[in-house]
Q: What sequence folds into this?
């Protein structure tokens, strides 16, 4: 019924002007912070698991941000505590985007699958993501990081598929895809060669949004003590462990909080900048 | 599609025949309720499957070092884990409507564990939902009053900024500012004899910590829904008729945006109940968060399954309300 003749996303390519520069500027903080979190463990001046000062010692001297509950250097632990969060979140975001890209394109080509995904998303709406993570990690005590990743991916995929399927629908209905289908191309070819290449901008935006959601979920799992286990340095776990000493050394809680807050803000800023202008409302499908 | 084309006709014809319209409404409502209940049942079946299929069960999770295989088998029998899967599935699904949420790994009924904390969590989540609704509608309207203006840009940018913040980060900031540095509000919830918060002041910070990210989320939704609605022809007519700005907002824009706003708020319910678990831990609030913290230590999967079942039922209720608001706002056109 809706035979769109215009290819969806070409104009952004030619324009290398101020709009692109603005997107780059808004993505930059997230890239810098992610790089810092990844390189952090190498920059830490002290070991993360050996006491340097007195428990909850005030900032200064050996420990610029003071000591934590066991007197370990807060600065070193903050530098070291972001890598696992960032790596796990990136892994979740990549997996969700890749799975959703394929399933979303197939859903647009085969509406029966689309309806199943819709119903799955309706069911998962009844399951708060935080409780879903707890359900999987408690039912699978030896799962470790794999359990957190699995739960985050399962909980994220249906919404992401919905978003991709919505963006893929006009492409799937276009003349060249119909021609390829009539020409006898198989489903795999249609998905990979005909539909997905036209959804690059959507998939990039989706990746950004899923990274935002993954940082939230993985950090919350860490805070609820179902993620990294002591003595590992992890921003969310540090907040939980040191909350008793917030009066003695506020930095032991404030520093990891600022780190998570900045990561969430900058990644969100980047994701919002990556969303194509026509698809702004899709943000609500996070 | 066909409905919108012939939309004027049945509306005109339904006037002299009130009874069939009422029947149709009742049938529609029954259909919505049945659909929501079916989705809830599917979720509960999926929860059982997840607990069942993932490696490890409640008996091994709570086992202590040096325990023999016989001890383990005995506890399995005690927890009913030795019975056939089909039988346990039947018990789980038929027990839930009667309030039986299963047995924890320590052998206590889960419903009993949740009886006192869950109402406290509902109070916290309900208040946060109310604050979210009021503040995000107010901010959304304020921003929509002058599209593209300074207020609009500030509100939209801050809303986008805060929506991704984890609740515990917001909570730490609130505790530092309002409890430690200014000493205006308590950072810890004290309970009175019956286990509920002793004073309303102890609810302020937990409610704010929960509501702030959701306010960011819903302000964006309200703002976008109002922008969509503003493009409708009847709004243009109202503007050309010279109606006052606030009257257009309250009588023309908001009613049209209502279904979208209701759906957004309903979606937030799940986020609020999930976030409550986190926020309660920080403020020592006597809700399901403390029960779940114990469940994490024990790796107690039946407890989390029970909590998921109850929250699923609450969210189903809120989504039903949103369905009905949508049906009412659209005047039976859907």
A:
């Amino acid at each position: 019924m809706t035979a769109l003749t215009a290819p969806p996303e070409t104009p952004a390519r030619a324009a290398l002007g101020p709009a692109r520069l603005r997107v780059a500027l808004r993505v930059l903080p997230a890239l810098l912070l992610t790089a810092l979190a990844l390189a952090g463990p190498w920059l830490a001046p002290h070991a993360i698991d050996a006491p340097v000062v007195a428990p909850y010692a005030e900032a200064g001297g050996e420990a610029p941000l003071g000591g934590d509950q066991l007197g370990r250097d807060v600065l070193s632990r903050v530098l070291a505590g972001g890598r696992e969060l960032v790596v796990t979140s990136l892994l979740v975001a990549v997996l969700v985007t890749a799975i959703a890209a394929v399933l979303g394109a197939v859903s647009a080509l085969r509406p029966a699958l689309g309806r199943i995904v819709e119903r799955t998303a309706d069911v998962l709406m009844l399951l708060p993501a935080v409780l879903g993570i707890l359900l999987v990690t408690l039912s699978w005590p030896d799962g470790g990081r794999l359990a957190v990743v699995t739960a985050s991916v399962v909980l994220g995929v249906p919404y992401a598929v919905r978003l991709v399927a919505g963006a893929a629908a006009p492409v799937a209905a276009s003349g060249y895809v119909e021609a390829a289908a009539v020409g006898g191309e198989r489903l795999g070819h249609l998905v990979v060669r005909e539909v997905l290449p036209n959804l690059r901008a959507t998939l990039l935006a989706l990746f950004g949004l899923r990274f935002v959601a993954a940082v939230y979920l993985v950090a919350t799992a860490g805070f609820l003590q179902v993620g990294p286990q002591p003595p590992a340095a992890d921003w969310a776990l540090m907040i939980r462990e040191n909350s008793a000493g917030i009066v003695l050394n506020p930095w032991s809680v404030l520093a990891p909080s600022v780190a998570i807050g900045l990561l969430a803000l900058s990644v969100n800023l980047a994701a919002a900048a990556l969303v194509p202008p026509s698809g702004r409302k899709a943000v609500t499908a996070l | 599609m066909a409905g919108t084309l012939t939309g004027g006709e049945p509306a005109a014809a339904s006037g002299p025949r009130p009874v069939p319209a009422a029947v149709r409404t009742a049938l529609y409502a029954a259909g919505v309720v049945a659909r929501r209940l079916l989705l809830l049942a599917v979720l509960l079946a999926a929860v059982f499957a997840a607990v069942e299929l993932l490696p490890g069960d409640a008996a091994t999770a709570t086992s202590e070092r040096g325990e023999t295989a016989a001890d383990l088998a005995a506890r399995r029998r005690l927890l009913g884990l030795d019975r056939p899967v089909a039988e346990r599935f039947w018990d789980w699904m038929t027990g839930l409507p009667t309030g039986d949420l299963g047995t924890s790994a320590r052998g206590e009924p889960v419903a009993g564990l949740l009886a006192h904390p869950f109402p406290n969590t509902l109070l916290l989540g309900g208040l946060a939902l109310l604050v979210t609704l009021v503040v995000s509608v107010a901010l959304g309207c304020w921003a929509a009053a002058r599209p593209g203006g300074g207020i609009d840009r500030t509100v939209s940018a801050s809303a986008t900024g805060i929506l991704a913040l984890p609740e515990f980060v917001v909570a730490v900031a609130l505790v530092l500012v309002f409890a430690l540095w200014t000493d205006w509000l308590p950072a810890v919830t004290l309970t009175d004899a019956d286990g509920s918060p002793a004073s309303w002041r102890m609810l302020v910070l937990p409610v704010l910590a929960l509501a702030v990210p959701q306010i960011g989320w819903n302000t964006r939704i309200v703002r976008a829904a109002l922008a969509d609605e503003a493009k409708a022809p009847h709004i243009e007519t109202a503007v050309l008729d010279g109606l006052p700005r606030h009257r257009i907002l309250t009588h023309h824009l908001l009613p049209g945006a209502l279904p979208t706003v209701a759906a957004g708020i309903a979606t937030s319910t799940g986020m609020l109940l999930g976030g409550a678990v986190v926020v309660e831990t920080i403020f020592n609030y006597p809700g399901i968060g403390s029960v779940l913290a114990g469940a994490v230590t024990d790796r107690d999967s039946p407890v989390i399954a029970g909590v998921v079942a109850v929250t699923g039922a609450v969210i189903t209720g809120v989504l039903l309300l949103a369905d009905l608001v949508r049906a009412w706002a659209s005047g039976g056109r859907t």
